[in-house]
Amino acid sequence: MSSKAIIQQATPEMDKIIAEHFYQLWLDNNVAADLIDDDWLEVTLKFIQQARQEAKFQAFIAQVETEIVGSVSCQLFTGLYPSIRSDPKATGRVIAIMVIFGMFMLNRIIVVKELVLS
Which domain holds residue 66? Predict the structure, then answer.
């Protein structure tokens, strides 16, 4: 399939879509559905909301025609351990996001002829 993909910034109203994509990510990494907690949606939505407030979380939706075909999200890296440094250079930064289309997006390959950022 060859089409034009439109990338748009996701709004908080789209959090459920982003959460479903996180869920799919676990499945795509061979985690059996029965090993995923039943409250995965609630936990993921809480994660997104907290990351938005504390780590500048942002997500983007990829759409081809009327179908959402994928998403990408980013946030400041908050570390694997508590930060005890007071200097401003110790704060993480999101430098760049690169989305490469023509890769797997929700288990299918889409070749994008044109990419529009809105």
Answer: 2-117
Order of all β-strands in the sheet with 2-9: 67-74, 58-64, 2-9, 111-117
**Residue 38: which region, alpha, beta or left (left: phi > 0; alpha: psi -120 to 50)?**
alpha
What is the domain count for the chain?
1
Angle of CA points 94, 96, 101, to nearest 5°: 130
Prediction pTM value: 0.70
26: buried, middle or exposed (CB in 10 Å: 19+, 13-18, 0-12)?
Answer: middle
Query: Taking 50 as the threshold, does the pLDDT of residue 93 lie above it?
Result: no
Place of tokens 């034009």: 4
